[in-house]
Amino acid sequence: MSNVNKKYTDDELKGMSNEELATLGTELDDVTVAFRKERFPIAGDPAEKRAARGINIWLVISVISALAFLGIYIFWPWEFKVHGEEGLIWHNLYTPLLGLTAGIAITALGIAVVQFVKKLMPEEISVQRRHDGPSDEVDRRTLTALLNDSWKTSTLGRRKTMQGLLGGAAVLFGLVVVAPLGGMIKDPWRKRHDLNYMGDGTLWTSGWTLHEKGVKLYLARDTGTIAEFHEGESGSHYTTQGVSRLVRVRPEDLAAGGMETVFPLAASDVNDGDLYDPQKDVYENHMHSIHGNRNAVMLIRLRHQDAQKAIEREGQEDFHYGDYYAYSKICTHIGCPTSLYEAQTNRILCPCHQSQFDALHYGKPVFGPAARALPQLPITVDEEGYLVAQGNFIEPVGPAFWERKS
Q1: Nearest in space to 319 (alpha carbons), one of 338, 334, 297, 335
Q2: CATH number where 358 lies
Q3: Which positions ≥6 away from 96 have C-beta within 8 Å?
Q4: Is residue 202 included in any domain, yes or no?
Q5: DSSP H helical segments within 29-87, as ranges?
Q6: Which intervals hold domain Rieske (predicted)?
Q7: Residue 5 located in a structural domain
Q8: pLDDT (tens digit, 9 = 90+) per residue, 315-341?
């Protein structure tokens, strides 16, 4: 145990200099300074100036990179572009530039801090004996003195330029980390474009909302077809003419206990079956439907004996067609795809956070963090035997937002 006198009056403590309090603090904490050496004991050492200049350069790089990150994040054209659209190259550069500038800002700040500790702060080896129990008034006073002494011996207090750069780099580093969170905040009332396969920009619209405009929407599956290669006398090229990425689904296309991911397909964009036209180019519209972030729907054909036990949600008793049920594929937790269907238990599973939904109980969550049932799409069969949407979702698809009422 330490034999250092701890019985000091307030007047005695006030009368001590910061150096004396710092020395007393190390003794009270059972700290032995085994070795301590100033990096540059001679004032104005050119080597010290070079070290400080090098650290400042890293801080300037960090500040510039952080400002570049914020500028790119705010002003760079980030809107999604598909192949062939003007501005695709700028869209493709958006994410890499964010990663590059953020990485440089963080790395440069880290290098500056490490260089400051290794090149400017005094070399010191201290050994401390640990003890239990709260600290008394003397310990609290001396701790403050030790912190002041650390600030003084670090030499940062007299380096005003470095202080400003370090403070600016630290603030900008915080903005680099926090700024992307702003992209998660979205005004649900703001319409960003006319209603299409992507909705209209509000959080409660999707491609299925086109039904409210009188558009006939088929349930269509993705074939994965890509542009076709053509080679002729004039050269080779790729074309999407006559290529159908989405094709309509009939009830007999699914086996009992089967599941198919389907997307909305407007009647004007159909190019399959008896309506196939080799000159028609609907590929781009099909891709817009697939990329619509709230469009994916799980079409499930329950085994008939299971369907007999299904519990319908009040007001949605006629949303299914026989043994066929269509639930949004967007998890109501944070929007991951509920891409797993367990036919034996009739459970729909989200692989992100293990939420589970009961397909026999109107998509009600039975396990995991999801708190709301999966929205159900009303479906039926048209006169040609294809599955179509009987209406739009009657509640917003996906996770909660502050204006959501369901």
Answers
A1: 297
A2: 2.102.10.10
A3: none
A4: no
A5: 46-75
A6: 322-388
A7: no
A8: 999 999 999 999 999 999 999 999 899
pLDDT in tens, 241-299: 999 999 999 999 999 999 999 999 999 999 999 999 999 999 999 999 999 989 999 99
Q: Looking at the structure, do residues 170 and 255 belong to the same domain, yes or no?
A: no
Taking each helix axis from N to C end, the angle separating 160-178 and 88-119, rounded to the nearest 10 degrees, works out to: 140
- Helix or strand (DSSP H, E) at 13: helix 10-15
- In this structure, the answer to whether residues 263 and 373 fall within a common structural domain is yes
Domain span at 65: 10-184
Provide Rg for the chain, Cα atoms.
Answer: 33
Instruction: Tell me if 354 is assigned to some domain.
Output: yes
Q: Tell whether the model's pLDDT for residue 147 goes beyond 60.
A: yes
Residues facing 381 on adjacent strands: 387
d(CA 379, CA 324): 8
List the one residue out of 47, 70, 58, 65 whose CA is nearest residue 108: 58
363 and 249 part of one domain: yes
The DSSP result for 223-241, as a single string, is ----PEEEEETTEEEEE-T
Tokens linked to 192:
């960003």
Contact 357, 365 (CB under 8 A): yes
| Residue spans of alpha helices (H) in 85-178 | 88-119, 137-153, 160-178
* Cβ contact 140:76 at 8 Å: no
Instruction: Check whether residue 81 and residue 123 sit in a common domain.
Output: yes
166 and 63 assigned to the same domain: yes
Mean pLDDT (whole number) for 138-152? 69
Give me the number of domains the chain comprises.
Answer: 2
For residues 264 and 361, membership in a common domain is answered with yes
Residue 369 falls within a domain, yes or no? yes
Residues 243, 354 within the same domain: yes
Regarding whether 237 and 131 lie in a shared domain, the answer is: no
With a CB cutoff of 8 Å and minimum separation 6, the contacts of 73 are 98, 179, 180
pLDDT in tens, 195-235: 999 999 888 899 999 999 999 999 999 999 998 888 877 78
For CA atoms 163, 166, 167, 168, give the dihedral sign: positive
